[in-house]
Amino acid sequence: MKALFDFMDKNIAPLFEKGGKFERLYPLWEAGDTFHRTPGDVTKSAPHVRDSIDQKRLMIFVIYALIPCILFGIWNAGNQFNLANGIEPTLSADFARGAIMVLPIIFVSYLVGGLWEVLFAIVRRHEINEGFLVTGMLFPLVLPPTLPLWQVAVGISFGIVIGKEIFGGVGYNILNPALTARAFLFFAYPAQISGDKVWVGALNDSPAFINNLLGVGDKVVDGVTQATPLAVAAAAETGKSAIEALNQAGFTLWNITAGTIPGCIGSTSAIAIVLGALFLIATGIASWRIMLSGILGCAAMGLLFNILPLDNSFAALPYYYHIVLGGFLFGIVFMATDPVSASATNTGKFIYGFLIGALTVLIRVVNPAYPEGAMLAILFMNVMAPLIDHFVVQAHIKKRTAYARALNNA
Fold it and tell me: Could you tell me the pTM of the whole model?
């Protein structure tokens, strides 16, 4: 293997480096080289930082943290499909059907988004950033499993180009690219990303050869309609308890927490999300301050609405339901903690996370047209993050200035 690497370094690498025949394609060479082995470049002079964590490994760690959500999302998509279409839900059948639904979405996200990443890297003559490893996976996990693949392509294109590259690329974007992509689809194609019919597919919507391959080709289901728990709670009739409406629709606190319900591919299971959160916190990849304060903000706003005398059944929903409902936990763990678009100061992270949690419940209760308030709350606080950090830094400066003056006067 060493002989092969030596041959590549001496005979192939120079073709892509500055002055080489394929200099413009250096981003492609560098991406492939760093993907397969550790880069051999070292600094020639001090200072040196001895750390095994680089950006590539950081992003891969996030993918590791997403594995429970990915696996559960594949199984749940297949399980919901089979239950709704009268097919016996076995582990193998659920995974097979779920893989057929979910893997093409992930593939299109990586393919189309990756093409945009390569194009901008070649035009701007810089290396391909590993950040897309995470964006390309986060985006599919916040989509319904029935979303048309062409909309996946359009959405990820918008998220990469408008949400990131238009600002200058990685490190310059003010919005989370994956959430920007989802927000675009939410407002551009609401029929395919919200409502009752987008979460569970029907047999007649699947290609005939797929149904025959899975042994269900003789079954016919005209359509499947099933709302998410958030939609059920938001639509509860006045005077009727939101918990009662959820129970009548077949939703309990346990199956909502476990995630065995219709919803976006990777955001239904609080258990899978918590496993990923623990991994991110243990490895120091994501900020526990944002996660903790976000949950506290969600709980505080939920308790406030419980106390206020409002004629709104959704407002009376216990705070712990808001924490496990919808995409709040997934957003606060994997998206709000994006180091580029989140607050950078420690105090700012607490404020930033708390406001995301509070705004999520506020949007859900006050504007039931958007029962999934986490997406809008995170994007809004992405915009506010620099302002929060500014005031935090200014407060520190004033405190240190006052302390220095006190010492001089002593």
Answer: 0.86
